[in-house]
Design brief:
This protein has 14 helices and eight strands. By secondary structure, it is of the alpha/beta class. It folds into two domains: 49 residues; 252 residues, 2-enoyl-CoA Hydratase, Chain A, domain 1 (Alpha-Beta Complex), CATH 3.90.226. Strand 2 and strand 3 form a beta hairpin.
């Protein structure tokens, strides 16, 4: 049973009726209910398709945050063989919000960086809701250094509301750690693919998303600040988050039109949480295609192409 978002209420009502009819059928009711169940199933799918064909930016934000949406560990489990996690920044501590390691993606060695939010209370606390501390970004730099040393492509999965803003994180140099991770990503001489799978929030996301190719899932969001944070700053009212989401151009379609990202990965109707295996496979195909495009490029060509890509962002806007 899915967890329904507020705007999905029409679908929830129809699927509730389907459950009632199935319960009656299981009790041995003499009336054949299968035709009615089939009709309601078709109506449910059509209603879901209609709703998701015209989502607002705020509704996409809610889908991107859906608790049942596939998380980074789901993508690693579904796409990466022989994944070996590598822990610690060799300076202060291990950060569980940012998972790093090496593995094999469809026969090719890759380095992995991934922000994991967790999927229940215990794992969310362990992973700090995907909000990395400075040691997480210093670990990312360490892994990118290693990837470059051994000529291994870097694949990152972005899903965070932002870097952790706690006092301890600031004392240990959060801004500096984010800046160094961003700088390292920009200067890598190996191919790098970044996939925004949920929320791509602020510098916490860009620190591992400064890649040769930046891809987004259809209902993911990517922004300089959360809609609630922007509303608090602009209007001193976080309740105006919907207005902020609309004006910030945070959807994949908006960002592709501005050349901020390089491609959009279609999700199943109703969002990735309604077809986890499908969306993970599609993500794998997109990553494979992007890596193949850069397979024969030299380190100098890779750096130049990445530099040109980021320098061109926004220049085509009217």
């Amino acid at each position: 049973m899915h967890s329904y978002l507020e705007f999905e209420k029409p679908v929830a009502d129809i699927e509730g009726k389907i459950q009632e009819l199935r319960a009656l059928a299981a009790e041995g009711e003499t009336v054949n209910l299968q035709d009615e169940i089939g009709r309601l199933n078709e109506k449910s799918q059509q209603t879901l398709s209609d709703i998701y064909s015209k989502l607002t930016p705020w509704q996409k934000t809610l889908v991107a945050r859906h608790p049942d949406r596939p998380h980074a560990l789901d993508y690693i489990q579904g796409l990466i063989e022989d994944f070996t996690p590598l822990a610690g920044d060799r300076n202060f501590a291990e950060d569980h919000a940012l998972i790093a390691g090496i593995g094999r993606f469809r026969g090719q060695s890759v380095a992995i960086l991934a922000q994991e939010k967790g999927n229940d209370t215990q794992s969310r606390l362990k992973h700090n809701f995907g909000m990395a501390r400075p040691e997480g970004y210093r670990k990312a730099v360490r892994i990118m250094d290693m990837a470059e040393r051994f000529s291994i492509p870097v694949v990152s999965f972005v899903d965070t509301a932002g870097a952790y803003p706690g006092v301890g994180a600031e004392e240990r140099g959060q801004a500096e750690a984010i800046a160094r991770s961003t700088d390292k990503g920009l200067g890598l001489g190996v191919p790098s693919i970044s996939l925004v799978i949920g929320e791509g929030g602020s510098g916490g996301a860009i620190a591992i998303a400064t890649a040769s190719r930046v891809l987004m899932l259809e209902h993911a969001i990517y922004s300089v600040i959360s809609p609630e944070g922007a509303a608090s700053i602009l209007w001193r009212d976080s309740a105006r988050a919907q207005d902020a989401a609309t004006n910030m151009k945070i959807t994949a379609e908006d960002l592709l039109s501005m050349n901020v990202i390089d491609g959009i990965i279609k999700e199943p109707v109703g969002g990735g949480h309604r077809g986890k295996e499908v969306v993970i496979d599609r993500a794998g195909n997109a990553i494979e295609s992007a890596l193949n495009e850069m397979a024969d490029m030299t380190p100098a060509e890779i750096r130049k192409q990445r530099r040109d890509k980021f320098m061109a962002i926004g220049r085509t806007l009217s």
